[in-house]
Write a structure and sequence with these properties.
The structure is a homodimer. Chain A is α+β, with helices and mostly antiparallel strands and about 600 residues long. The first copy, chain A, has a domain of about 150 residues. Chain A has 20 helices and twelve strands. In chain A, the strands form three sheets. A five-stranded mixed barrel of chain A has the order 4-5-12-7-6. A two-stranded antiparallel sheet of chain A has the order 1-2. In chain A, α6 runs antiparallel to α8 and α16 packs antiparallel against α19. The longest helix of chain A is centred in the middle third of the chain and has 37 residues. The two termini of chain A are about 45 Å apart. Chains A and B meet through α8, α9, α10, α11 and α12 of A and α8, α9, α10, α11 and α12 of B.
């Protein structure tokens, strides 16, 4: 299927909303130019469209083949993986030390949107490799780094993260995989892992598993006793060449609703007591280390939601403009179809802005020379990550539902791309911590971060935005509505703190998911309104320059792509504020009801 | 997969809420007894569980086979279809004249829930046969009835409805299939139809298509020029035996996201000018006739939503009670899981009550001896049908989403039943008139029905319910909230009428889907609250009888299934009123905003 994306919208966010040239203030990015950034995006888009997108439907149809011993990825994946690596796309946003391109995440985000949007099943192979390599790069010893990292970024070896076990899903602390120290400093690993994405395949010479396990004698039934190990599929010799099997067995692959081109494996480590692992960093710090990769992966889940829904929306829009129904009208003229398209547009563009901004906050949080500014942005990134993950994936799924409804019967059949998009995107709500876990993370960890300072700073930024723009007549009503919703978030957050202060944890936990959704709606409304304010100024200027007679404005906007795009930004923000934001009040009413039926009922 | 359903809840609705014995007042049902009804339900449930459910996963995996000429349904379907027919299940709720059982729809509804919940792909074969046969029975000539109807109810022949053409989906009036009158009174049919459910298969000796076509010379591009024809796949000889091919060609079958055991066909009629059709009733009344079958089919779409989500919820509940995560707790203890389960429970039980009541209203509307009462109930059935269809299917899909989230990773893989349920149920939002079409039907046809009298009568029934029960302390708050929401529906309906009165049709049409959803939420809240009122009285009585010390009530409820069920009814209604009903206000705020961005934007 063709990969469709709205490049204009991506450029708008990077150049007119974020102003990505601000990244040049950071020492690590001072050598870059906007031309270089744009070139990377052009290359990435071209690659996504030409080399990845053609594998999406075929990979879904073919699936992965497990012969009882090893796994074969779908046809074409191997070649595409190698080209992907040759282009330097795996380590796009990691330092150059081991072969990365050292680009900011702000630029890697749209590239990631192109790649995932073209085929999320494919993109998970390099995505996990990058995450695993980067984790070794960040936490591993020099020896581990030298052996593994470059080979992974360059596409010779791939990577995975191995957390889940049959009895330990959301409760990682229940894991049973063991690590027994050996005289040479290595560990013998034993245990079973399941739902391992990219767990086995034929894309690379070797696969490097990052495995959570418990060192003999460390605390049980708790995440505190967990350590992290590098466990290659094939042993690596001293000279870096690949040796014999490391006693890692592929037990099975899952048959899934979607992402069928992605090999989701059950792995068994050390069936013959010959599985060697190498400790990463300190013992018992595995959970903390894995969270680096987890946080990146959570952002990527949000990105999967965005990228798939982004292309689903573009397809639905194209279809609606072409499909004739009833006296020669195209269905884009029908109000109910317009409502569905607008919902898709608003979610996609709002979530895109949220994700790209989060990428930007991460860049600033990592690299800003001023420690206060650094902490300020890192706090925003932490706060927004669960929203990117949960809201991005849930609304991504919602958008595919709306896209399917726009297509009617054609949306349900495999000849058209939407049904695969729907099946593929669903997993993003589940893995890397279910969206329920994300909501608890937001409530239990992110709100109280630094004594609530992070969320207060974020509130202050949004509040200041309202103050600055509230007299703009074109958006006055919408900014007023936004301000009310923003204040409701603050109120609810306070009420949760009071409840937990009184020892009532269950009620806030019951409201965690609705709270994450309402908070995300406010955040998305903010980014859309910010875009509308920018677009309004630009459109006014454009009209002033090009049209003398104000009565001709409407006609000009209709005939001019750029004017229509800017006008669309204003209307999208208005639509979202009036059609979606009112649900915030409904959620507040629900939370304020104090209704505990769900806690008290006998189920 | 095992078919799970909450039989207690079904009995509650039939016996304690609807009081199905009231049907004995209707002449056509006066011979029945409640024992007979219950026996039918027991039989249906047993058949669903033992003979249909085992075909669901295998049918999904195997799919239908098209060899370029004919279609084979999955293994086991043929035998099950014949047993189904032998049990008299096809014509369960049609008169005995041609072999029906003459049961009320009120009783056929739960049977239909069992059958569809066990396998919707399978159930569509007898479902379409029943619809087609009943349409011939209602509108056809004596000759047609004598030839076709009994053979269809008895499982010798199957049936379909053929509306959609490539260029005519929602806009049926655009169809191009033609019918040319022949000297013998028959017609030559020529044209292509697509998305024909059960369009071809090997379950029966013959397939009887009901085809919409335009008689030569009748008005084009309008539903007014459409007539309805009986077009058998194989010609039927005078003695009723099957003859040569009737020039009906199976061109293709669709590859779909779900309902893979169901053969969705593209058919070509009269490629060799040898396709004979027989007019049903009067010329140019095809649309009106087909609407009988369409309305039945719309109710069945809602039933598909209910039945699949009903069993998905039971599976999720069972899973949550068994799945251990984190220090030996089962996940049903976690507040976020309870929230998800309660949403599933409330939607399933609310929609079940809505659908069964609609079945009851149809029975009363068809058979009540008093013309006024008859019209009263028929009006309710008409009003509620689009809600049953659209809300039933959309919320059915939503429930499968929540069920999958409850399962976590296991929900996404084919070893567990949820992912198939999700794929299967999605189609119900699309076919038989997309849910967008249902919303327009509610707004444009059903609200103004009899000058608004029907909706006013329905409002009066709900309002009276509040008045009657508002002093019940256990539900006082909830009834108050309900009343406010109910009045908002009336307000919005009025405002739409004012707008259309002023010639503004687009804005109401833009709000049609949100309006259908908010109206349905109020209707479902009504049925749940009605159940809660009943349960409250029964529970009080039970406690009075069984427990002397009021401080022991909680403990008793926990240990007594019936008490827990009744207590659950009260809590489910409270939950729905506090967690879902507030969205009604949000929708009203959206509608009242007057925001026309979606209509004005250049897409």
């Amino acid at each position: 299927m063709e990969y469709l994306v709205n490049r204009r919208d991506i450029d708008f966010i990077l150049k007119e909303q974020i102003h990505y040239e601000k990244l040049f203030e950071l020492p690590e990015f001072k050598e870059f130019t906007t031309e270089m950034f744009d070139m990377v995006l052009d290359q990435s888009f071209k690659f996504a469209q030409q080399e990845i997108a053609p594998l999406n439907a075929s990979g879904d149809k073919e699936g992965c083949l497990f012969d009882g011993k090893t796994v074969k990825a779908p046809k074409g994946y191997k070649e595409a993986y190698q080209h992907f690596a040759e282009n330097g796309f795996i380590g796009m946003d990691v330092p150059a030390t081991y072969g990365g391109q050292g680009l900011p995440l702000t630029v890697a985000m749209p590239a990631s949107e192109f790649f995932s949007g073209a085929s999320v099943s494919f993109m998970m192979y390099p995505g996990l490799t990058r995450g695993a390599a980067h984790l070794i790069e960040t936490c591993g010893s020099e020896a581990l780094k030298n052996i593994y990292v470059q080979k992974m970024y360059s596409g010779v070896w791939a990577g995975t993260m191995c957390l889940t076990e049959p009895q330990a899903g959301s409760a990682v602390g229940d894991l049973k995989t063991t690590a027994v120290p050996q005289p040479d400093g290595s560990y013998k690993i034993k245990g079973g892992k399941m739902f391992i994405s990219s767990g086995d395949h034929d894309l690379t010479e070797n696969i490097i598993h990052l495995v959570l396990a418990r060192i003999q004698g460390d605390p049980e039934n708790s995440t505190k006793g967990i350590s992290l190990f590098v466990v290659p599929k094939l042993k690596v010799k001293k000279d870096g060449s690949v040796g014999e099997s490391n006693d890692v067995k592929t037990v099975n692959i899952e048959h899934k609703m979607g992402i069928k081109g992605q090999a989701t494996c059950t792995l068994s480590f050390g069936d013959n007591d010959q599985c060697v692992g190498h400790l990463v960093g300190e013992p018992r710090s595995g959970m903390k280390q894995m969270f680096q990769m987890m946080n990146e992966a959570r952002l990527l889940c949000g990105m999967q939601g965005l990228s798939i829904s982004g292309t689903a929306f573009e397809h639905a829009l194209q279809y609606a403009k072409e499909r004739v129904q009833g006296q020669g009208k195209t269905i884009v003229a029908f109000p109910d179809v317009r409502r569905m398209l607008m919902l898709q547009k608003a979610y996609v563009e709002g979530i895109r802005s949220l994700l790209y901004h989060t990428g930007y906050y991460i860049d600033m949080g990592k690299g800003h020379p001023n420690p206060e500014t650094k902490a300020y942005y890192q706090g925003f990134a932490d706060l927004l990550t669960p929203m990117c993950k949960a809201y991005g994936s849930d609304m991504g799924f919602k958008v595919t539902e709306l896209a399917m409804q726009t297509y009617g019967g054609y949306g349900y059949i495999s000849e058209y791309p939407i049904e695969q998009y729907m099946r593929d995107v669903k997993i993003s709500s589940i893995y890397e911590g279910t969206n329920g876990i994300q909501a608890l993370d937001l409530l239990g960890r992110k709100l109280p971060q630094n004594g609530g300072q992070v969320v207060q700073q974020f509130y202050a930024m949004l509040d200041e935005f309202v103050t600055k723009n509230q007299n703009e007549p074109a958006l006055k009503v919408e900014l007023g509505e936004f301000k009310k919703a923003l204040d409701l978030i603050a109120q609810v957050a306070m009420s949760f703190m009071e409840m937990t202060g009184k020892g009532d944890f269950n009620y806030p936990m019951l409201s965690a998911t609705p709270f994450l959704n309402m908070f995300s709606n406010v955040v998305v409304a903010y980014y859309l309104l910010d875009q509308a304010v920018i677009a309004h100024v630009k459109l006014a200027k454009l009209l002033e320059e090009k049209v003398d007679d104000p009565s001709q404005h409407k006609g000009f906007i209709k005939g001019n792509d750029e004017a229509a795009y800017l006008d669309g930004k204003i209307k999208t923000a208005r639509f979202f504020v009036h059609q979606v934001l009112p649900t915030v009040r409904a959620t507040v009413k629900s939370i304020n009801s104090g209704d505990r039926s769900a806690l008290e009922i006998i189920l």
